[in-house]
Amino acid sequence: MPDSLAGLEQQRSGIFTQTLQLADFRSPSITAINGRCGKPNCHCHQPNQPGHGPNFRLTRKIDGKTVSESFSSAAELRKAQREVEAFHRFRQLSQDLLEVNQRICRVRPVADTVSPEEKKRRKRSVRKSRAK
After folding, report:
1. Would you state the pLDDT for residue 123?
2. Which parts of 1-132 are beta strand (E)?
3. Is 71 in contact with 53 (CB distance < 8 Å)?
4. How open is the CA angle 49-51-55, to the nearest 5 degrees?
5. How far is CA 77 from the centre of its chain?
6. DSSP H helix total and E strand total for the chain
7. Is-contact 52 36, C-beta < 8 A?
């Protein structure tokens, strides 16, 4: 059963409404880093020790370069996690919007897209050409 134009437009409107309700978001990802420090006597340098961490970092690309940001507290980490989750929701809504708009374009009749100037027909000339 094909989608109705009104139903698709209502669905598109709903996606716009959901997009407007999104909280703050940013596009990077959060990664966990485990590592060893520079102190040779630290436990992290002992055999079979996992090292320090996990230390969480926010990683993103800026002008083609990877930039990482560390968190000084668990509250900052939770805030960044919410922002990244909101970004993933934004990306999903954007994909949904694109799919609905493509269906709208297929369903919308051509007559709805014709401008008033295009609707006017050119009138035929009433003058007859003279044969010489």
Report:
1. 57
2. 29-35, 52-62, 65-70
3. no
4. 150
5. 22
6. 3, 3
7. yes
Length of the chain: 132
What averages of pLDDT result for each successive group of 10 residues across the chain (132 residues)?
Answer: 82 96 89 86 86 88 91 92 94 96 89 66 61 60
Please check whether residue 77 is in contact with residue 57, taking contact to mean a CB–CB distance below 8 angstroms: no
- For residue 36, count other CB atoms closer than 10 A to its CB: 15
Return the closest-CA partner of residue 15 out of 81, 91, 112, 84.
Answer: 91
Q: With beta carbons less than 8 A apart as the criterion, state whether 67 and 61 touch.
A: yes
Residue 13: its pLDDT value, please?
Answer: 96
- Give the ranges where 21-73 is alpha helix by DSSP (H): none
